[in-house]
Amino acid sequence: MALLCYNRGCGQRYDPESNSDDSCTYHPGVPVFHDALKGWSCCKRRTTDFSDFLSIVGCTKGLHSNEKPPEPVKPEVKTTSEKKELADCKPKFNEHIIQAPKPIECINRPSSDEPMVKLQLKISASLKQALDKLKLSENDKAVTEEDSGEIKIGTSCKNGGCLKTFAGPQSNEEVCQYHNGVPIFHEGMKYWSCCRRKTSDFNTFLSQEGCTKGTHLWTKKDDGKKVVPCRHDWHQTGSGVTISIYAKNSLPELSYVEANSTIVSLLCDCPVCNTVYSPQWHVKVFILHIYPYIQISIVWIWGAGTLPAVEGI
């Protein structure tokens, strides 16, 4: 009598007397359904169609069996009352063990009356070379012509914006058209303070026609050193503060920087071009790194001989 084989994936009828070790082709595993894919746990083939899943050929050979394979053990499902009991045992909030922060160490601000100390200056090689060239060019100039009042042919007019040169006594009778202000360079724009015709091109700026008429200035008297404003800025990093003073060709031996724990003052002297670079008085508050702590400090950048009185320090 033919019997029905209950091996998974077989379902054929067989004769027990002719049943051999390779008569049945079946799946020893269990069906797996995951993410719309269907397959058997014993082999890797997967499909999304249920009919294709039923027609997947078994991956194992063996004897036919008329005994139903044991059902897979289902996970124990807890009742609602058991779930409620477990939920009651859990804390109603998440516990976080925290540690109180350490008290902030009180740092007393040093007095601004502390004695000022001169800082060591480091001179770059490029500045030394530039100063040497300027000294040589100054020594080569002949100053006797200016002392005698004689004007050399080809001397350019010293008025700003005038491009005329001295061609003889007749040049003194010409009308000089010049700018009586000073050149200003700001945010990529170039213009004269007297007429404010702005341009971004440097050649266009140089060729701007003057806004004032007068006489040519062939020689300019040396009025000695003078204090002029100087562009400066600063930026802060994690390790300290960098202050930049844009004073070209300044002499280190005539310039100095003094500082204490709260105040910085500096004088930048440029005798080669008869100029003492100094910004107008500014008081700026920023973070200044003074070992071994960081504190708020006031920076003074100056060009006078004495410091003015500042209230509120």
Automatic annotation (TrEMBL):
One of its GO terms (molecular function) is metal ion binding. InterPro entries: CHORD_dom (IPR007051), CHRD1 (IPR039790), HSP20-like_chaperone (IPR008978). Pfam families: CHORD. The keyword Cytoplasm does not apply. Keywords: Metal-binding, Repeat, Zinc. Residues 5-64, 157-216 form the CHORD domain. This is Cysteine and histidine rich domain containing 1. It comes from Xenopus tropicalis (Western clawed frog).
